Inverse folding.
């Protein structure tokens, strides 16, 4: 999850043009997606992703990152938590519109690789409040937005974390990988 120094995931208008996205960040994204076989999204993030990634590799000018990520996106099982999308059918996509806690708990129990979630701060808070996130990958961008969509706005449970890895990237982004303390 990309966040500003003051904890926002997007500007008030939803813009994320402040994120410092470069080859180094793309490589970290590739490593994270290679470790996963399941993607979890809230509706808004899914609509953004699904509006771009299914055909991103078809563009003759597609970058290696776009080709790699589009290939992963089209092969991975996707779960979208959304009441408004209930009943919709999409390729390799399951809509979760009820019994969210039990359904996500069941997904976590399946054998396979990691479950990854991009964006979706509202869903992230819900998952935090229900003890359903095991690891946090935060990319703190060197910007103070002052207002916007906060990552932890609706999180109300204390979660103790262990720092697994920290890294400072060339463009000043700090990457932090935490695991939940047991």
């Amino acid at each position: 999850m990309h966040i500003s120094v003051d904890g926002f995931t997007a500007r008030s208008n939803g813009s994320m043009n402040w994120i410092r996205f470069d080859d180094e960040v793309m490589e970290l994204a590739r490593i994270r997606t290679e470790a996963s076989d399941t993607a979890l999204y809230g509706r808004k993030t899914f609509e953004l992703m699904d509006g771009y990634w299914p055909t991103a590799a078809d563009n003759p000018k597609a970058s290696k990152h776009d080709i790699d990520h589009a290939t992963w996106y089209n092969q991975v099982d996707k779960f979208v938590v959304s009441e408004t999308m209930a009943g919709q059918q999409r390729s390799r996509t399951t809509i979760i519109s009820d019994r969210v806690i039990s359904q996500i708990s069941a997904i976590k129990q399946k054998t396979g690789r990691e479950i990854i979630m991009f964006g979706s701060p509202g869903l992230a808070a819900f998952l935090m409040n229900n003890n359903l996130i095991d690891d946090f990958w935060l990319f703190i961008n060197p910007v103070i937005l002052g207002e916007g969509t906060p990552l932890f706005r609706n999180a109300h449970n204390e979660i103790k974390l262990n720092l697994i890895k920290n890294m400072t990237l060339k463009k000043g982004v700090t990457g932090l990988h935490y695991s939940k303390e047991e």
